[in-house]
Amino acid sequence: MCMVCIAFASWVLKTANPQVGDAWKAVLLANVSALSAIQYLRRYVRVEAATGDTEQPEP
């Protein structure tokens, strides 16, 4: 999910034409996708850290 959002944001920025007046829409879409991916990663890391603390690996 996260990698898809980052890849989509990268693709949008590469294919956007900066001379067109609507380029801000592509940039906005890319930023929203990137922020969504970052938020998802932070939530995933938090959940993994919470579940990892309760389980102790046995030697």
From TrEMBL:
GO terms for cellular component: cytoplasm; nucleus. One of its GO terms (biological process) is regulation of DNA-templated transcription. Keywords: Signal. InterPro entries: Perm1. Residues 1-18 form the signal peptide. This is Uncharacterized protein. It comes from Salarias fasciatus (Jewelled blenny).
